[in-house]
Amino acid sequence: MSIEYLGLSEINGPLVVLEGVQDASFEEIVEITVDRTTKKLGRIIELYEDKAVIQVFEGTENMSLQNTHTKLTGHPMEIALSPKLLGRTFNGVGQPIDDLGTISGIKRNVNGSPLNPVSRKYPRNYIRTGISAIDALTTLIRGQKLPIFSGNGLPHDKLAAQIVKQASLGDNSSDEKFAIVFAAMGVKYDVAEFFRRTFEESGVADHVVMFLNLANDPVVERLITPKVALTAAEYLAFEQNMHILVILTDMTSFSEALREVSSSKGEIPSRKGFPGYLYSELATIYERAGIIDGVDGSVTQIPILTMPNDDITHPIPDLTGYITEGQIVLDRYLHGQAIYPPINVLPSLSRLMKDGIGEGYTRADHQDVANQLFSSYAKVGQARALASVIGEDELSPIDKKYLTFGRAFESEFVGQGEVENRTIETTLNKGWELLRLLPKEELDRINTAILEQYYNAAE
Question: Is residue 93 located within the same domain as residue 206?
Fold first, then answer.
C-alpha cells in the first residue's frame, strides 16, 4: 500500500522539500499531482532524517505548499526499451513525442549499472564518419569516447548531423548492425527541427533514436536526458548486439543545468560556480561507453560541448579532457576562412587511434600518412610565423612549399562539402596527393618501403 503525502514544506526553484517521509530511497521517483489535475514527476536527490529534497522534472510552476499530493513509486527513474526504439523521437525523460504511441517492453534504471573493468574489452576497429580530418587524423574507434570541442557560432550542429548521416562501420562490415542514439540538451526549437528534418530527408531516421530536451523545457530534465539516451544505447548494444554511436549535444547545457540545481540546493560552489562533483557527474556519463567481452555490440560516444569564450581551460572541456580519450577541436580562424568542417588538427587527438587502424582495419599506410600530415602541417605554422615577420617573398624555397602545402591541406583535406562522404581510401589517397607537394626528403615520418610504394604512384 503506497502512502500519499499532502502538501510540501518548501519550494525553491526546481526543488521541493517534503517532510514526514518514511522508507524513501535516494534517486527514487515520486509522482506529484497538482490541484488534483496536473501530474508531474520528481526524483529524490537528498534525504535527511524524515525530509526528502525532490527535483521536479516539469518545474514547480503552479505548485504551492498546499495544493500537491505526492506519492513515492518505490523505484528509480526507468525507461521502457525494445528494438522498436529505432526511428522514434522522445523528449528528455524518454516519453514519445512523435505521436507513434508508447514503447512497451522491458524497463531499465536510467542510472545504469557499472561495467566490471575485468569484462571490458579493449576498443578495436574504427567507425568511418566520411570526414577526412576525423577518419585520417583523429580516427574514431569503436567503444571510444571522443568529444568535439566547439565554440558559440561554430558549425558543430552541422558536423553532428553530417556524422549521423554518414557514419558506418567501415567498408567491410556490412553484416554488422549499426545505429545511432542522438541526444540534444537545451537546444532551440529550430535546431531540434534542423536535426529531425535532416535525418528524415537523408533517409537515416529509421536507424536513429532521438531524445530532445528543448531550451524551454525544464532545466532539471536536462540532467536526466544523457542518462536516458545511454540506457537506450546500452540496451541496443549489449542486449541486441548492435554497434551504437551516441552523440550528446550540448554537454555545456548539461553542466550549466547541474550548476543551477546545485545553487538552488545551497551547495558550496567550486571553479566558475560549478559544483565540486562536476567531474564525477561527467565521468558517470562518459564511462558508459565501451565493449563487453563476449558481446558483439559496442557503445561509442561523441559528446559535443561549446567552450565558453573559446576557453579550452574552462572546467567543462578541462574535466572532459581528463575523462575521455582525446578531442576534436573546431577552430574559429578556419571557420572565418569558410573552411568546413573547421577542424584544427594540431590540438585534436585520438588516443586509441593507433589500435584500430592499419592493415586489417583501414590501410597499411594509414599511421605513417597521419604522422607525416601532422608533422608537415606543424611546419606550416612555423613558415607562416616567419612570413609574418620577413614577408612571404623572402622565405626559402622549402618554406614556400610548406605554405602551398598548408593552403591545400586546409582547403582540400580538412575542407570538404557538407554532403561529401569520403571513403578511407579516398581520404588516404588525398593525403598522398598533398604530400607529393613536398620534396621526398622532407617526408621523414614515413617508412621507406611505404614511401617508395605510394609517393610516385599514379593517382
Answer: yes
**Could you tell me the three cell numbers for 241?**
548486439
User: CA 343, CA 148: separation in Å to the nearest integer?
Assistant: 9
- The helices-and-strands tally (H runs, E runs) of the chain is 12, 21
Nearest-angstrom CA–CA distance, 222 and 414: 33
Contact, 104 vs 80, CB < 8 A? yes
Q: If you average pLDDT over each of 40-49, 52-61, 192-201, 405-414, which comes out highest? A: 405-414
Task: Yes or no: say if 401 and 376 are a contact pair by the CB < 8 Å rule.
Answer: no
Same domain, 381 and 334: no
Q: For 95-117, how does the pLDDT look when each residue is reduced to its tens digit (9 = 90+)?
A: 999 988 888 889 999 988 878 88
pTM of the model: 0.92
User: DSSP letter string over 296-359?
Assistant: S-EEEEEEEEEPGGG-TTSHHHHHHHHHSSEEEEB-HHHHHTT-SS-B-TTT-EETTGGGS-ST
Cell 529509421, located at residue: 206
- Which CATH number goes with the domain that contains 59? 2.40.30.20
The identity of residue 276, as a single letter, is G
